[in-house]
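Morning F.,

Quick status update on the modeling queue. The single chain you submitted on Monday has been processed. Sequence for confirmation:
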Amino acid sequence: MRMSNLALLGGKKAVQKNQEDTFVWPIVTKEIEDAVLEVLRAGKMSDIDVTLKFEEEFARWHGVKYALAHNNGTSAIHSAMFGLGIGHGDEIICPSITYWASCLPVYSLGGTVVFADIDPDSLCIDPGDIERRITERSKAVVVVHLLGMPADMDPIIDVARRHNLKVIEDVSHAHGALYKGRLVGTMGDVACFSIMSGKSLATGEGGMLITNDRRVYERAVLFGHYERHPSVVQLDELKAGSGLPWGGYKYRIHQLTSAVGIIQLRNYRKQMEEIDRAMSYFWDLLEGIPGIRPHRPPKGSGTTKGGWCGASGHYRAEDLEGLSIGRFCEAVRAEGSPCHHGDDAPLHLHPIFNTVDVYNQGRPTRIANLPPGVDIRQPPGSLPVSEGIFEKLFSIPWFKRYHPEIIEEHVNAYKKVVENFRDLLTTDHKRSDKDPV
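Structure tokens below.
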């Protein structure tokens, strides 16, 4: 009986080299350490002078008027919703495939969420499905640039403007990405970013809100930044309530994060370029390999993935005689390359969007503030692309450095598994009985 070359079945691993600094993230320099120590030694951890500078530079990068730093990306999204005036009985439209923070803060404002399906290639919200989800209660669309891929903003903006909907961009995965040459986060009414350590712009635990709308900015300040009210609030209709946080929240960012952020902004463009070079090299070497497809924009489109946060690929089991994605990923991992397939349920199927009564209102929070008889819950089968995507998506190595010889070993891990996939079929217990052997 022939011995397989696959490491999972006794062969030698494809990845052998010391990985050096290939995956080290975030990159902490002496300049960052000095900036943090300066804040610590001055005892300015809870001041805002460093934060104001961070906001100024962040706004300048995006060419917008206002930036407001938050203690995390979730609070930035919460503030953006409040800034837009979303409240009791209002609906937002959001993709079901995203982190919960893209939509769940709307509950505390008395609003709710209607989920839209995603485009199977970009994995971002499907512009065509947005229009099908609009009701007389719809107030905004949350556009998530998922896994670094810019959403198709032109048709999204067109739908939003025709139906008088506001657009919130969640840019937590896509710092510095371009959509047809334009920075993501600059096309909607307000944009929010997570800048925690796992993101491509990594500063610690923090978030950022940007907008060109003065009223959105002032309302966001009123919501969770009470110490700024005297210096920011100018609109007459908002002045009377200033002095205390309207939301009862305290969303100020820690100045150690702001200090890190200022330096990271200076370094990020260069880091982003190296990441893009490395990730593009990886996919270029795998071009045309059966069973796997890159999750990246078309070349020459003017659309880019920025820092490639959450780098992923598309899996096509039919190209490999039905080999399950779980078995495929297991074999790649055995070769020494990180690879996992998604197994999280879409948000619209989670109990918190179906049965949970968060605020003891006597019925599920998802529908508690809607008119009697209105039920917007979405059962299994209602969003078919979202419900099937995690059997078609796998993570790939997120290279932070362009080390060709190391990248090539990871490429060889994938090639090796694909070339020997039939050795896995007879031991693949996750395959369907209908799949060919």
